[in-house]
Amino acid sequence: MNQETVTAPGEPIVGTVHIRTLFPTTAHTARYAAERWLAAQQGGPEAVDDDSAAAACLLIAELTANAALHGRVRGRNARLALTLTPATLRIEVTDARGERQPVPTSAADTDGESGRGLLLVASLADAWGCEPCSPGGKTVWAECARRAALRTSPDSPSGPGTTSASR
Fold it and tell me: What strand order describes the sheet that includes 137-145?
């Protein structure tokens, strides 16, 4: 996972922070790592109770589950990327199945056991879409406006202008 944060102690995060990770399309470990990362960026596990953080966690869960279910190619991983700015959270999930575009089920078709995930994405996200990803995959993305106050990065060492990066 890649993460870069530039902060000064006691100051809000004003830049952009990222997390990117590959995950096998048969597991949900990336989802849990992303949810922990998001909670840490927004003030700890109790911040997940915030409506916007809870919506973001549901979006992460749905998009990664869709990649595991519909984007699986043997021997290929999917990729989850989160970009957090002062104004938005962008969630991107890339898989190898570009020929399988996401198709929302109509609201009239909600009696089945599955197929409502993209309706959930459309209702929770401020914007969402799908883009081709070379060499033949796709990236499904969702964006949420940030409603919670920004906070200092939890792993910031003391000293003004400190940069922390882990790779």
Answer: 17-24, 77-84, 88-95, 137-145, 127-133
E-only strand ranges, 31-136? 77-84, 88-95, 127-133
Over the chain (167 residues), the average pLDDT of each successive run of 10 is 41 68 69 84 60 87 88 84 92 91 70 76 95 92 75 39 32
| pLDDT for the residue numbered 76 | 83
Distances (CA, A) of 151 to 22, 58, 107, 113, 116: 27, 22, 38, 40, 34
Pairing outcome for strands 88-95 and 137-145:
antiparallel
Distance CA 124, CA 121 (A): 5
Cβ 31 vs Cβ 19: under 8 Å: no
In the beta sheet, which residues pair with residue 5? 164
Q: For residue 163, what pLDDT is reported?
A: 31
Bridge-partner residues for 81, per DSSP?
20, 92
Paired with 14 in beta bridges are none
